[in-house]
């Protein structure tokens, strides 16, 4: 958390009215104190200044004047007087805490810290007062340890002291512990509702947590108490702007500009407010003024460029937007603005986008936007298409325009498209296509009442057409009222014989009723009637699913090889018949077709997966990602493939590339987070977590991510409640294992066992859970461990850990035959793992095969390069069994044991020698 500094602070000069000299310092001080008791601040300032004129070194006058300035929020003026008061030996217990705050307000953090020694002799309350500001200055100076020491000292002086709590609040905020900070501030303000530093911090916390309404309230209260604070006026204006209170934000910006004409942040506020009101001329003016003062904020450049764009000032728009475009997401509106400015300026070689920000005010523009949206959908850029529609949507009196917008929205799974279709029908009651789309959209959304209403209307308005009866049949099929569906379809086909939709619905009705003979009869009729219709072909194959049906599809494709959809239909049918090579050949024949649909890539992938060709799966995913960079599926699948193969580095590279096209995509960020955690990249995980913590997704997942980070950091106690939350909401095997590891790390083995055993009630065949559970049983219940491991190898005969551990357990029980069986199996599966080889050698030694035991014991030593003490001891044991005592002596003399078990074995072997 970055603390706000006073670099933006405004100084307001106070006009001092000259007064006649008083007779004495004492009378001026007396008058000043009297005015202060009556809250007459200006009068008291005048009296104190007069006192100082009489006695320039009067410490009390300096102190009182500095105190007034500090209470007004004028840090610079307060600092001058309080330093003089200290110089003239005013009471340290009074001046030092206030001087520290004045230093804070003027960003003199080093000076605050320099007061530390002098403050150490103060009484508890005054020292706590100082320590609060020392904590803040240490944090702003990035001296975290100094800050923590300061907080500890303040706490030791009195935990309930408001300044001790303030010091702790500063530290909590620096660690982004917002709830804890808020609770501390509430306690402080319950003690002293006018504690200005707490109010300032409360505003900052609210800004950090995006509670801009509360931030504005806090900053207002601060400003009421300290009216000369320049920075809080800016903070308040910013909070008001962010909370949507543009008018009030502008009021404070105007107030600031009345005092300081060229204050850049105030011009920034004015620019943002004007832009929100679409007053682009004013927005441009204020943005340019702020930028001319080197206030180069990213959002300000965007406002300057966008305002110039709407004003058709192409040069200025290009100037501003070109400086920020590299930092913009792919789908940002300003990218399209820049493309238009480049087009207008003739900078064709700079155009990096093809979509401009058309407002759709004309029918031509509306049609263009629709066509561009369709194009974006074809390319897989669904988000782009959605945003293009959203930012250009407008009230329209054109039914066609409304219908296009509605259909596009429905294609994007946006249910508000129904409203657009209703608007189209209201504009043109005879717009049958719009009503048709609305009816089937309602049916899709299970709005049976609306769909039925439209069907009934059609039957009444168009009694000679089949549409109303077809729709009524579709409704009946959805409700599984097949008798009604058949009756409606009979009427439909009587009105319009052989209408394909009606016949297809008849076939669907028969198939849903599992009437095989009727389904075949209807499918045969359809294929003879429309042998090249893709829907008919799909249904026909769905009924028969055999070579004969595939031949019908291939005939249709041969008659029209340019139709990609037919090729995909044939390939899909081939795969259902397990003709993967034939499907692969067909798909390869259309691989060079432009703009291949998503279904093509899905089928190619499915074919290679069924053939267990991992290399081709990877190659296809890479080709898909390159050909359709806006498709998110290949990014996810390719990253998952690399991660499953243990190549987390490549998986992260794929995710990063995907984020170039899908900026801030939550799904990709969640996958990125899990891969970082799986690869134990703690620092990177923590950085990404800061972003995800503010994202809108399930809190249990957030807790789980933080729990995994804590688990990697071996902060087991803190990890447990977070991983428990994750497991309770998502009780998967992996989450059970995370929680169990945390319990094990926290020395709560019984709870780890409880978690794992309970999960096996949910899924008795989860091998990883059983393996982990057996590993825990190894400590004190070998019988249980053996039982679990035996169960694991029965279900997972290639589980190396289970075979290896069973070999050891049986060896310890003297059951050498069973031990040898599992040791041999483990060695076959993983001859490169040192512990597996060592176990095999020990079992062979127990069976009396000393020569073989020595061979594999030597291999285990080579794998570990002599760095494993247990394996070295086992090797020495094998050497002794093979009468190679001198070599065993050499080995034993070089071994340094670290555990009691190792020590005992070494002594035993030496005794044998």
TrEMBL record:
SMART domains: TPR. Pfam families: TPR_11, TPR_17, TPR_19, TPR_8. The keyword 4Fe-4S does not apply. Gene3D superfamilies: Tetratricopeptide repeat domain. Keywords: TPR repeat. TPR repeats lie at residues 196-229, 800-833. InterPro entries: PEP-CTERM_TPR_PrsT, TPR-like_helical_dom_sf, TPR_rpt. NCBIfam families: PEP_TPR_lipo. This is PEP-CTERM system TPR-repeat protein PrsT.
């Amino acid at each position: 958390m970055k603390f706000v500094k006073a670099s933006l602070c405004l100084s307001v000069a106070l006009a001092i009215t000259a007064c006649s000299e008083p007779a004495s310092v004492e009378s001026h001080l007396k008058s000043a104190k009297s005015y202060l008791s009556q809250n007459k601040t200006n009068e008291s300032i005048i009296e104190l200044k007069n006192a100082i004129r009489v006695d320039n070194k009067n410490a009390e006058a300096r102190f009182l004047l500095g105190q007034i300035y500090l209470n007004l929020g004028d840090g610079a003026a307060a600092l001058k007087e309080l330093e003089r008061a200290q110089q003239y030996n005013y009471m340290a217990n009074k001046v030092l805490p206030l001087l520290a705050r004045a230093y804070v307000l003027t960003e003199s953090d080093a000076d605050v810290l320099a007061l530390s020694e002098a403050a150490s002799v103060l009484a508890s309350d005054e020292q706590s007062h100082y320590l609060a500001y020392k904590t803040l200055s240490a944090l702003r100076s990035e001296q975290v340890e100094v800050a923590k020491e300061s907080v500890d000292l303040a706490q030791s002086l009195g935990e309930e002291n408001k300044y001790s709590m303030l010091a702790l609040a500063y530290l909590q905020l620096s660690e982004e512990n917002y709830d804890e900070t808020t609770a501390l501030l509430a306690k402080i303000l319950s003690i002293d509702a006018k504690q200005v530093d707490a109010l300032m911090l409360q505003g900052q916390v609210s800004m950090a947590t995006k509670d801009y309404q509360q931030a504005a309230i806090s900053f207002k209260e601060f400003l009421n108490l300290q009216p000369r604070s320049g920075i809080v006026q800016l903070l308040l204006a910013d909070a008001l702007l962010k909370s949507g209170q543009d008018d009030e934000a502008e009021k404070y910006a105007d107030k600031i500009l009345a005092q300081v004409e060229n204050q850049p942040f105030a011009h920034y506020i004015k620019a943002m407010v004007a832009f929100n009101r679409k007053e682009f001329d004013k927005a441009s003016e204020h943005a340019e003024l702020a930028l001319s003062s080197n206030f180069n904020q990213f959002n300000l450049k965007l406002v300057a460029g966008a305002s110039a764009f709407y004003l058709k000032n192409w040069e200025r728009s290009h100037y501003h937007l070109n400086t920020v475009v590299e930092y913009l997401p792919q789908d940002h509106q300003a990218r399209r603005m820049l493309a238009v400015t480049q087009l207008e300026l003739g900078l064709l070689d700079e155009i990096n986008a093809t979509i401009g920000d058309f407002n759709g005010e004309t029918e031509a523009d509306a049609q263009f936007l629709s066509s561009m949206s369709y194009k974006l959908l074809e390319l897989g850029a669904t988000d782009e298409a959605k945003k293009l529609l959203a930012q250009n949507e407008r009230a329209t009196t054109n039914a066609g325009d409304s219908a296009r917008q509605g259909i596009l929205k429905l294609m994007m799974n946006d249910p508000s498209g129904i409203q657009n279709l209703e608007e189209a029908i209201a504009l043109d009651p005879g717009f049958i296509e719009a009503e048709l789309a609305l009816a089937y959209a309602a049916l899709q959304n299970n709005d049976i009442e609306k769909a039925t209403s439209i069907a009934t209307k059609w039957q009444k308005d168009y009694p000679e057409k089949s549409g109303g009866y077809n729709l009524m049949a579709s409704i009946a099929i959805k409700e599984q009222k097949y008798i009604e569906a058949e009756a409606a379809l009979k009427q439909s086909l009587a009105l319009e014989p052989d209408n394909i939709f009606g016949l297809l619905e008849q076939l669907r009705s028969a198939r849903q009723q599992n009437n095989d003979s009727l389904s075949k009869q209807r499918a045969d009729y359809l294929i003879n009637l429309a042998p090249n219709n893709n829907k008919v072909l799909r249904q026909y194959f769905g009924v028969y699913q055999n070579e004969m049906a595939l031949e019908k599809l291939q005939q249709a494709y041969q008659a029209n090889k340019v139709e990609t959809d037919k090729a995909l239909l044939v390939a899909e049918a081939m795969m259902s018949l397990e003709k993967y090579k034939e499907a692969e050949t067909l798909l390869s024949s259309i691989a060079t077709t432009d703009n291949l649909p998503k279904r093509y890539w899905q089928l190619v992938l499915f074919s290679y997966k069924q053939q267990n060709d991992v290399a081709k799966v990877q190659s296809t995913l890479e080709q898909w990602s390159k050909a359709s960079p806006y498709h998110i599926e290949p990014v996810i699948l390719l990253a998952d493939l690399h991660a499953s193969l243990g190549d987390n580095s490549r998986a992260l590279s794929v995710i990063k590339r995907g984020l170039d096209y899908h900026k801030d995509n939550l799904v990709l960020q969640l996958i990125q987070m899990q891969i970082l955690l799986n690869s134990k990249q703690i620092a990177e995980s923590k950085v990404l977590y800061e972003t995800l913590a503010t994202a809108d997704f399930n809190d249990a997942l957030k807790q789980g991510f933080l729990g995994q980070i804590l688990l990697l950091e071996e902060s087991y106690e803190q990890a447990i409640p977070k991983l428990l939350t994750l497991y309770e909401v998502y009780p998967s095997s992996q989450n059970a294992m995370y929680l169990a590891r945390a319990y094990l790390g926290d020395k709560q083995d019984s709870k780890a066992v409880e978690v794992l055993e309970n999960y096996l009630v949910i899924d008795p065949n989860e091998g990883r859970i059983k393996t982990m559970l057996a590993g825990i049983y190894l400590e004190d219940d070998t019988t249980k461990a053996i039982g679990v491991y035996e169960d694991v190898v029965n279900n997972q005969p290639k589980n190396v850990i289970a075979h290896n551990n069973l070999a050891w357990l049986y060896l310890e029980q003297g059951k050498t035959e069973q031990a040898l069986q599992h040791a041999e199996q483990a060695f076959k599966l993983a001859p490169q793992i040192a512990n597996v080889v060592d176990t095999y050698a020990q079992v062979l030694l127990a069976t009396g095969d000393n020569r073989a035991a020595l061979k594999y014991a030597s291999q285990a030593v080579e794998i570990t390069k002599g760095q494993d003490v247990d394996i070295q001891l086992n090797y020495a044991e094998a050497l002794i069994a093979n009468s190679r005592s001198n070599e065993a002596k050499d080995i034993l003399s070089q071994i340094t044991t670290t555990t009691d078990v190792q020590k005992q074995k070494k002594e035993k072997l030496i005794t044998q020698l």
